[in-house]
Amino acid sequence: MKKLLEIKDLKVNFHTYLGEVQAVRGVSFHVNQGEIVALVGESGCGKSVTAKSIMKLLPTAFSHYKSGEILYHSMDLLKVQEKEMETIRGNEISMIFQDPMTSLNPTSKIGEQIIEGLMKHKKVSKSEAYRKAKELLELVGIPQPEKRMNQYPHEFSGGMRQRVVIAMALVCEPQLIIADEPTTALDVTIQAQILKLIKDLQFKLNTSVILITHDLGVVAEICDRVVVMYAGEVVESGKVEEIFANPSHPYTKGLMKSVPRLDMSRNESLYSIVGSPPNLLHPPNGCAFYSRCEYAMKVCQKHSPNLMEINTTQQTACWLYHPMANPVEKESMGGM
C-alpha cells in the first residue's frame, strides 16, 4: 500500500516555568492511503501533541519541534512555511476535535461555517458552496439539511454537532482526517452512529484516518492498525487483530487486561496498571515503563529499547523480545 503520511523520529518539547517537558520523544509511524490508524494510550502519552504537530497547530510561543520529519506525499510539513501550510490545513488534511461545542462558532450559522472552508480553498461560487454544504449535511445523516443550514450550534444536540464537525472536515474532500477522540463526549448510542459514519465515509471517499482514542472497543470496531503510545514514545504497533490476539509489550497487555469483560465474575476486581507514568520534565534513561512493569529486567532500567520487529507487520519496544535478552533473567522477573 502507498504511504500517505510518514512520521520519523518526531521530538516535541514544551517550555514551562519548571523546565522543558519532553512531550513527544522520537515517535515514528506511518499511515497508508485509505486506512484507519488508531493512536492509543492513557492521557498525557503524547497522542494529541503528535496529531497537532501534523497540522502545525501547537502554540509557537512555548512549543519546539526538536527533531524529526513529518512527510506528507514526501513533503516535510515541519519545513513548510505557514502560508503554504494554510493551503494544506483544512483542505488536504482536516481535523475533527474532541468537543464539537468549542469547535463551532456559536455566533455563526451552521451553513456559513461549512461554506467558509470551501470558499477559502476551492474556486466555487457561493451558491455552489451552499449546495455542497447541504449535500454534506445530508451525507452525515442530518435531517432537513436546508433548514439546519440556517440554524446555530446551540440548536443542535451533541451528536448532531459532532456530525456537523465531521461535515466541516469533509467539505474539501481531504486525503487525511485526524479525529481526536471524536466520540468521548457522546453517549454510547450516538457514539456507535458516529463511528459507523466515519467508517462508511472513509470507505466511500478512500480517505485515510488517524483516530486518537483511549477506548479499545472503538479501535476493534473500525481501525486497521494500532499505534500504542506511552510517555511520548511508540511502544508497539501492528494490525488490529495482531494487537488484540497477541499483544507483546507489557503496557499493551496491561491496557487489554484493563478492559471489562462479559465473562468476568461479579466478585472479580477490574485490573489496573500499578503506578503512574514518568515525569517528562526528567524522563528516565531506560524504558519509561520500567517502574510499572511486572517483567522488568536490569537492562530496562539503564537502556531504552528501540522498536523491534516481531513479524513483518508488528513491532514492539521491549527488551523481552531482543535476541540478546537473558532468558534466565526473564524467568526470574516473571517470564512471559
Secondary structure layout plus pairing:
Elements: E1 3-16, E2 19-32, E3 36-40, H1 47-55, E4 63-72, E5 75-76, H2 82-88, E6 93-96, H3 100-103, H4 110-121, H5 126-139, H6 145-148, H7 158-170, E7 176-180, H8 188-205, E8 208-213, H9 216-222, E9 225-230, E10 233-239, H10 240-245, H11 250-257, H12 298-302, E11 308-309, E12 315-316, H13 327-332
Parallel strand pairs: 3-8, 3-9, 6-7, 7-8
Antiparallel strand pairs: 1-2, 1-4, 4-5, 9-10, 10-12, 11-12
What labels would you give this structure?
single chain; 336 residues; alpha/beta; Rossmann fold; eight-stranded mixed beta sheet; four-stranded antiparallel beta sheet
Account of the protein in words:
The chain is α/β, with parallel strands linked by helices. The chain folds into 2 domains: 3-92 and 172-332, 3-Layer(aba) Sandwich (Rossmann fold), CATH 3.40.50.300; 102-171, no CATH class. It has helices at 47-55, 82-88, 100-103, 110-121, 126-139, 145-148, 158-170, 188-205, 216-222, 240-245, 250-257, 298-302, 327-332; strands spanning 3-16, 19-32, 36-40, 63-72, 75-76, 93-96, 176-180, 208-213, 225-230, 233-239, 308-309, 315-316. The strands form 2 sheets. It has an 8-stranded mixed β-sheet with strand order 6-7-8-3-9-10-12-11, sandwiched between helices. The protein has a 4-stranded antiparallel β-sheet with strand order 2-1-4-5, with helices on one face. Strand 1 and strand 2 (19-32) form a beta hairpin. The model is unreliable at 327-336 (pLDDT under 50).
